[in-house]
Every structure is written in structure tokens, then in C-alpha cells.
Amino acid sequence: SQGEWEQLLTNCGVFLFYGMERFISHMLLNRLAAMNIPKCHLMILLDLVRSKQSYQRITNSDAHKSCLHIAVERPTETAMLLSLTGVRSIIANQWYTTSQENAERLEILFENLLTTGRTTGQTVHILRK
């Protein structure tokens, strides 16, 4: 529910979203824009995974949204909005991907951030290769 999303986001130091389609499509945009999330030092958005079912769901959902609302759900705009709410660092997919590719990214993130202790910048550089 929206309340659960808000509670999770306001009480975390690091937030990981690993899911289908666009992260923002799972939340009410006006509520997110009004949030204050200064405790969240890092948000990892491994979204933009597309399946036939998720594409159908998002298409049906988008039919009820304005063009401006849909534009705000794009990756760059999502990062800007989250930054304005107080999130300090954001790692996010820029393009649509497969679940397999996202699983590989998650493994690389965990290995480099948690196991070897690399910084987020170093880890993102490794992901780009």
C-alpha cells in the first residue's frame, strides 16, 4: 500500500527496489513529491524489467495518466524527483532490461559494495563495463 511504501522509504538508510517496470509506477506521484527522505543515503532501483504481463499492466495504468505524469516516471526524472525528496545517491537502470540482466547487476552490486567494500562510484563504474 502507499502507506507501507512511505514508511519503508522514510525509515531506511539504503533502499533496494528490485521489480518490474518503473519504480514510480508503484507509488502515488503527488505523495512521493511531498515526502522528505533525508535518512536514505542510497537508493538502488533495479526496475525497468519488462514482461508481457507487466507491459500490459503498465499500458492499462498509463491510459489513465497525463503525458506529463508519464514523462516524470522516466529514469532521469525519477532520479531528479528522488533527489529533491532528500535521497543522497541513486543507482538506477537507464533502459529496459531482462530479469536475468538485473539479477547479474544485483550480484555485482552486492559483491562489490558488501564483500569487497568498494564505493558506490567504483561499483557503478564496474557495472558500466
Automatic annotation (TrEMBL):
Domain of life: Eukaryota
InterPro entries in alphabetical order: CFAP46
BP-aspect Gene Ontology terms: axoneme assembly; cilium movement involved in cell motility
Protein's name according to its UniProt entry: CFA46 protein
